[in-house]
Amino acid sequence: MTSVESLRADILSVLTTIAPEVDPGEISDDELLRDQVDLDSMDWLNFLVGIHKRLHVDIPEKDYASLRTLADVMRYIEQRHDNGAAQ
Amino acid sequence: MIEFTMPALGADMDEGTLNEWLVKPGDTVTRGQVVAIVETTKAAVEVECWHDGVIHELIVPVGQTVAVGTVLATLLEAGEAAPARPRPSGRRAKKTHPAETPAAPAAVVPTPAQAAAETPPHRRRWVSPAARRLAESLEIDVDAVSGTGPQGAVTIHDVEHAAASAKQPQTKPTAADRAAGMRRSIAAAMSRSKREIPHYYLMQEIRSERALAWLTARNADRPITERILPAVLQLKAVALAAQRFGDFNGFWRDDAYHASGEVHVGVAISLRGGGLVAPAIHDVAGKKVDDLMSDLMDLVARARAGSLRSSEMSDPTITVTNLGDQGVDAVLGIIYPPQVALVGFGKPAQRVCVVDGGIRVLTTMHATLAADHRASDGHRGALFLAAIDELLQRPDDLEK
Hints:
CATH class of chain A: Mainly Alpha
Number of helices of chain B: 11
Distance between the termini of chain A: 13 Å
Oligomer: heterodimer
Order of helices and strands of chain A: HHHH
Largest sheet of chain A: none
Distance between the termini of chain B: 42 Å
Helix content of chain B: 25-40%
Structural class of chain B: alpha+beta
CATH superfamily of chain A: ACP-like
Radius of gyration of chain B: 25 Å
Strand content of chain B: 25-35%
């Protein structure tokens, strides 16, 4: 089980791999990620693939729409880990 | 003797700086091998060699900026003997490839271009031991150094000069330099396009629910690493249509249209920090969507990392651009010369449509064609767009 801080850092590190111009300190948890970072659909896919590889969470396509903010993504991953759905 | 020249790297690229040689004299190269890195305003391009052979001589040294078409290196064909020339003993002799063992110099008749390349006194003949030691300590490839001494001998001064110029490309151009250079390149190519190409534009609304439902069903069964994006179906549909409508797949050169036998689709990729490139995915019509997806991901990643291959820069026969992710309904694009067509896709969205006399809400998107009126007419353009529409209604057929 990952602590909240390190989970947040992991997610931001995946994000900055895809969008290197982003300053992780500037990302707010509750604003829409796509408003804060210029992400097209391939960037978004790469972001989720990065999450999958780093945090061992598989995210079905039907769940994409519910992941809109950094807080959403953190909550989602914690739930998946708690449910033992990690692969 | 084969001459390996600086390839064309797209309409907006007429020169490049040789950044690195990945081969040295005596090395065997195979068709398609990346042999050099050339720096352009858009990327560090991995230059492929399209001949099988043995590297005979690297003519352009690292750090030099040369025009497209310049001979970068010479290669010997399999079994071809090198023109003999005086060689020092020692390390050089050990490096000599069997195919390079002496032949009668008189037997070799140089081609005019080759003869021209032979004339300048910079051809290396001999390397002074001091120069060689210095080269080793500075990690300079002495084979790539131009000699200015007697009979083109490489002197200490030449090695120092090569070391100085080799350092230049390593001090990476700043992001601002590169952005300014890229702006200039785009300005040149797009100005040329608008000046020379009489564009016409067509737009068609395409029902996309079938393709999107097919994708959703397909992706639901797959791990995230095997899912595909709608953009891939669009690329495949454009490629298959371009195969049927050859007047949109090729080049306008020397006042005439030249259709291409193959369909290499250029993909407009915006770069973080500004600018764009439109490198090719090769043979799109013949590839399965899974392969196209991995090609596309790889291409976008490399384009944004600034590392593309020369064939990707020079080969596109038609270009596709998709600005739907940014929310626009339609894009009326500018053709990338010498190509003659560009297909654009906008955002799929729910729209009110009339179907069979009834009002329905459907997911549609707008496909556009910008085409060169010298090469085709609006009637053919309309049929081409209709073919893309029809292909996108049959996603199963796009998969193969």
